[in-house]
Design a protein that fits this description.
single chain, 419 residues, alpha+beta, Endonuclease III, domain 1, Nucleoside Triphosphate Pyrophosphohydrolase, 7 strands, 13% strand, binds iron/sulfur cluster
């Protein structure tokens, strides 16, 4: 299977109107103006940002989730968590991260692990290019940096699979450097707090957001001498140091994950509501302005679960395609939800099927695709002409890394075999 990975409200609605983006505009003026008015605005925005940073750090100390990768400053452990967390929720990542760190506890271990092993450890997380890049980067660290994770931003950014966000996250969380981060959660929080009405994907707006994130993390650094409470998870010695850049960045992400959520944000309990333009203007549901969503596209696939003498035919996806190197049952995309199965099977395998029985249907979404995979158990009339793939028992298949959809098909096969 080719398995892949609001509009603005009019003003004058009876709520207090604040010019969208006013705070950023003031901030911008504050940085660039040297007039007395400019200095006044500059000091106003500095005061706001200082209060914002203090409120975020205090809230984080009291409310941060105790996540396993937060108990360390090991850049490797933090890096693995950041890569796993891309496109994936925290609660899903925790068991994967624990298993990975147990099996491959060092950069050297990740660099040397067989391809089958890293794919098996990643099985279920999806977006498998991430794990292949992670291993390539581990190999670069071993070869070029003597196994030591690079500390400077450019060195981190040069590693395969690491972009500006991830380099900033590792640099700030592991090394407490004043590096900005900007992911979906942070964009949502900043556009709402600063009342940014423009689409964050537009270049100038994206640039503004990076500037704001930079200003906040530098302010956290400047305020690091102030005495503050620490989160309960900061039990280890390195975390008891002042790591304000790390905690400020994590507080922005955490606020976006727990309070300033996409739908139904908890504004009334939000620690920064007094500083939030969107809350004061009643525009929380309008921002971030992400433009029109692309319509979802339905796609249909048929998987043939072919059995001979208790073994099943499975195939490995080739290099260079989505989900490369993962395993799956032979499958095809079809135009209709209910294709002529017999003809489809004959065309593909150059032989007829003695019997085709429905096994299960798996539905899932990847990006804008709504995918339906219908699996059928097939017994040949005679031996198959198709020789691509290998024959495995259900127990042997369990040891392979399957794509998420085909893992569900395999579970149905295994349940059938057990029954
Ligand atoms: S007040 Fe509401 S919109 Fe503003 S940051 Fe807090 S949760 Fe988000």
């Amino acid at each position: 299977m080719n398995s892949f990975g609001h509009g603005r409200k009019p003003f004058g609605n009876g709520k207090r109107f604040i010019f969208p983006g006013a705070d950023f505009f003031i901030s911008f003026l504050g940085i660039s103006c040297i007039s007395p008015f400019g200095k006044f605005l500059n000091s106003k925005i500095k005061t706001k940002n200082s209060k914002l940073v203090a409120a975020l750090l205090d809230w984080f100390a009291a409310n941060a989730r105790d996540l396993p990768w937060r108990r360390t400053r090991d850049p490797y452990a933090i890096w693995v968590s950041e890569i796993m967390l891309q496109q994936t929720q925290v609660k899903t990542v925790i068991p994967f991260w624990n298993r990975w760190m147990k099996e491959l506890p060092t950069i050297e271990a990740a660099a040397q692990a067989p391809s089958e092993k890293i794919h098996k450890l990643w099985e279920g997380l999806g977006y498998y290019t991430r794990v292949r890049n992670l291993q390539k980067a581990a190999q670069v660290i071993v070869e070029k940096h003597g196994g030591q994770f690079p500390e400077n931003f450019d060195g981190i950014l040069a590693l395969p699979g690491i972009g500006r966000y991830t380099a900033g996250a590792i640099g700030s969380i592991a090394f407490n450097q004043p590096l900005p981060i900007l992911d979906g959660n942070v964009i949502r929080v900043l556009t709402r707090i600063f009342g940014i009405a423009e689409n964050p994907k537009d270049k100038p707006t994206n640039h503004r957001l990076w500037q704001l994130a930079t200003e906040l993390v530098f302010r956290a650094k400047a305020q690091s001498s102030q005495s503050r409470k620490l989160p309960a998870f900061a039990v280890s010695a390195p975390l008891r140091e002042k790591v304000s850049c790390s905690f400020l960045n994590q507080s922005l992400m955490e606020l976006g994950a727990l309070v300033c959520t996409p739908r139904s944000p908890q504004c009334l309990v939000c620690p920064v509501k007094k500083l939030c333009v969107a809350f004061k203007a009643g525009r929380v549901d309008d921002w971030p302005n992400l433009g029109k969503r692309e319509a979802a596209t339905a796609r249909h696939f048929i998987a043939f679960v072919i059995e001979q003498d208790g073994k099943f035919l499975v195939q490995q996806r080739p290099a260079g395609v989505v989900n490369a190197q993962l395993w799956e049952f032979p499958n095809e995309e079809c135009a209709a939800a209910r294709p002529a199965l017999e003809a489809m099977f004959r065309r593909r395998f150059k032989t007829g099927a003695a019997k085709i029985q429905p096994l299960c249907t798996v539905k899932h979404s990847i990006t804008r695709y709504r995918i339906t995979l219908a699996a059928f158990v097939v017994r040949f009339k005679k031996d198959s002409a198709e020789r691509k793939g290998i024959w495995k028992t259900p127990a042997q298949m369990q040891a392979l890394a399957f794509t998420s959809a085909h893992r569900k098909v395999l579970n149905a096969v295994t349940a059938g075999a057990a029954g």
